[in-house]
Write a structure and sequence with these properties.
mainly beta
Length: 71
């Protein structure tokens, strides 16, 4: 099977928290999978920066949408 197209992100929002190192982002993403099926999902991403570098990155998404798009 062909490789999927790159994810296209939209509706990105970056939110500050009371912790100056921690940011929360929300976004939507979509692509076409290698099997030709469309894929779309919403993400919540926690990013912790230390010294200007990403020290932690945690994403949450609906895994059922991944399974459905993989067929």
């Amino acid at each position: 099977a062909a490789n999927p197209s790159p994810l296209v992100f939209s509706d990105l929002q970056v939110l500050r928290t009371e912790d100056p190192e921690l940011f929360v982002a929300t976004a939507n993403a979509s692509t076409t999978m290698g099997n030709g099926k469309p894929y779309a999902n919403s993400y919540v991403i926690f990013v912790r920066l230390r010294g200007g570098l990403v020290a932690e990155h945690t994403e949450y998404l609906n895994p059922l949408k991944v399974i459905e798009a993989m067929g």
